[in-house]
């Protein structure tokens, strides 16, 4: 079957779908997630648990307490894109939702994600609004964006649902790790790239390749999920730095690289200085060395993406500002972030139509 399925009838019938829960050492958070999934009323909802080598007993606990769920041992190498690919390759239904082990879905969330996918052609994915478990009036994640300097664009994190009420019309988005996916369309673009380690872009790269290839991803802000307040650290710095280099080198067209160079190059210099102040220069050098040693593979990946191009980079890039977790969004550096935002927004206005 190509394109998308026939829209549901007036009774609200849905095609069967799978929810794939990715678990690693989730003993402390799993039970509320699984109990919420079991409250989903849709017939044909299949629940898979993909365990990536847990050592805290959570896999055994699931097998004992939830024998009705479809439990898989995937691997123990910590490669998150590979686990996502396992889900895409083994789910028994065309539509499949990726779900973290600490995420709680509202009972109607999957249904609200599927409906816009079924109503439009060539929709690869649809994402829900995430609010905090501890304070459901505050947004954790909403519409995803990528700034043209290859960092996370402005999100609505920290704003309230009263400030940004749910929209009945799904919005274009760059998804992260939580999304309902059309597996048939996913197969067209080669699934997740497992050479992206855990960090920035290891999920978004998949959806951006799809956008470049002419597919679409949507955000349904009326579909709710609940996420705990995250802990921030530099633990993912190597993945963040490496993935950003890989992303720029494989995704951006030659025209995009040329047009963005006047801002991209000074921004790189500023980031290098920032990494030095944070003690991350060694990490940055390792990432550069890894990219250089794998340059033949990077070149081949770039060629594949560019040869399949159906949309410009302007289809997923913007100048919306830096996300709540970005390096220039801290209070100490807020004035620098504001200055960069102003300059980049003006520059983007000049070059967007040329990209």
Which range does the strand content fall in?
Answer: 15-25%
**Low confidence ranges:** 5-11, 324-329
Shape: globular
CATH topology of the largest domain, by name, is Spore Coat Polysaccharide Biosynthesis Protein SpsA, Chain A
Mean pLDDT: 90
Fraction of helical residues: 25-40%
Distance between the ends: 33 Å
Radius of gyration: 20 Å
Oligomeric state as shown: single chain
Please tell me the CATH architecture of the largest domain by its name.
Answer: Alpha-Beta Complex
CATH class division of the largest domain: Alpha Beta
> N-to-C SSE series?
EHEHEHEEHEEEEEEHHEHHHHEH
Structural class determined from secondary elements:
alpha/beta
Number of helices: 11
Number of domains: 2
Summarize the structure.
With 355 residues, this protein is α/β, with parallel strands linked by helices. The chain is built from eleven helices and 13 strands.
What does this 3D model show about the protein?
It is built from eleven helices and 13 strands. It has helices at residues 30-38, 58-65, 80-90, 109-119, 183-188, 204-212, 237-251, 254-277, 281-293, 295-307, 334-351, and strands spanning 17-23, 45-51, 70-73, 95-100, 104-105, 123-132, 139-141, 146-147, 151-152, 171-172, 179-182, 216-227, 317-318. Strands 1, 2, 3, 4, 5, 6, 7, 10, 11 and 12 form a ten-stranded mixed beta sheet that branches. α7 (237-251) crosses α9 (281-293) and α7 packs across α10. The longest helix is centred in the last third of the chain and has 24 residues, at 254-277. The radius of gyration is 20 Å and the shape is globular. The two termini are 33 Å apart.
């Amino acid at each position: 079957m190509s394109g998308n399925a026939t829209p549901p009838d007036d009774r609200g019938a849905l095609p069967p779908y799978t929810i794939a829960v990715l678990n690693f050492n989730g003993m402390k958070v799993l039970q509320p997630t699984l109990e919420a999934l079991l409250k989903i009323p849709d017939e044909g909802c299949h629940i898979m648990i993909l365990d990536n080598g847990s050592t805290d007993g959570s896999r055994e606990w699931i097998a004992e307490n939830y024998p009705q769920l479809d439990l898989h041992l995937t691997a123990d190498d910590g490669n998150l894109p590979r686990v996502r690919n396992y889900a895409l390759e083994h789910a028994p239904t065309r539509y499949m939702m990726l779900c973290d082990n600490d995420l709680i879905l509202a009972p109607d969330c999957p249904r609200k994600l599927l409906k816009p996918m079924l109503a439009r052609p060539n929709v690869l994915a649809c994402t829900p609004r995430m609010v905090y478990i501890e304070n459901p009036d505050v947004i954790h994640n909403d519409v995803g964006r990528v700034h043209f300097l290859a960092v996370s664009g402005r999100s609505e994190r920290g704003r309230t649902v009263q400030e940004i009420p749910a929209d009945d019309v799904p919005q274009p988005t760059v998804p992260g790790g939580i999304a309902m996916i059309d597996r048939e369309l996913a197969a067209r673009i080669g699934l997740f790239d497992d050479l992206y380690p855990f960090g920035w872009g290891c999920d978004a790269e998949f959806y951006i390749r799809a956008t470049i290839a002419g597919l679409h991803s949507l955000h349904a802000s009326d579909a709710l999920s609940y996420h705990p307040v995250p802990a921030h650290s530099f633990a993912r710095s190597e993945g963040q730095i490496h993935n950003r280099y890989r992303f720029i080198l494989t995704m951006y067209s030659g025209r995009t690289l040329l047009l963005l160079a006047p801002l991209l190059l000074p921004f790189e210099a500023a980031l290098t200085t920032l990494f030095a102040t944070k003690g991350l220069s060694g990490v940055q050098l390792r990432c550069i060395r890894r990219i250089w040693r794998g340059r033949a593979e990077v070149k081949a990946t770039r060629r594949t993406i560019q040869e399949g191009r159906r949309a410009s980079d302007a289809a997923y890039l913007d100048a919306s500002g830096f996300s709540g977790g970005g390096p220039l969004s801290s209070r100490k550096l807020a004035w620098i972030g504001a200055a960069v935002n102003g300059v980049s927004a003006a520059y983007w206005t000049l070059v967007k139509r040329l990209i």
